[in-house]
Amino acid sequence: MDAFLQTELQFFILCLTTLFTLINPIGIAPILVVMTERFSKSERITIAKQGTITACIILIVFAFLGSLIFNLFAITIEAIQIMGGIIFFRSGFKMLEAKVGRSRTTPQEETESQESDDIAISPIGIPLIAGPGAITATMLLSSKVPNVHSYISIGLAILLVLSVVYLILRNGDLIINALGVKGMRVIQRLMGLILMVIAVQFVINGVSTVLQPLLA
User: Fold this and answer.
1) In Å, how far are 6, 86, 211 from 124, measured between CA atoms?
2) Angle, CA 19 vertex, CA 7 and CA 143 arms, to 5°
3) What are the extents of the domains in the chain?
4) Whole-angstrom Cα distance, residue 148 to residue 155?
């Protein structure tokens, strides 16, 4: 029994550290905050819930059914990398424009509240939180489970890491208030640039992996 618990604990720590490193909630925190700073606190809470739930569903599905999905639709992780790169670049370009937030006073501006649902699912839920790295990791971890009970360790690790992401996104207003409008504009441009660079790197990684056998 002691050996079983030790094995499970080691596997859980492996899952937790791997997913925490790849999702990197501390690193993506500024991006999450900048993406949601134009919304009200209640909307940011909604985005936090929807984004983390979306990422949780994606990671759990790929942990249990990843190989089946990839084989069924004949898709590769490189395709997800390229797709993620395109979405990242689009979001990063918008952030780089750094438009000053304003109150919604017209019917057209009122429709912006509908955007919260959209960005919560994509790009925040996927591929920002549940990106190619995290998806690949959950698939690899699930293929190396010591026993059937170890799937619980993967699930708990996913929930724990995403809980950190949720708390960061939910309390983004603390960071926004501390930085102020000018500070947020600077951070927004910086994070937009970083996101665009990440996007380009995603595409390079995906394309180079696909072309590597052809160039060998």
Assistant:
1) 35, 14, 29
2) 55
3) 2-215
4) 12
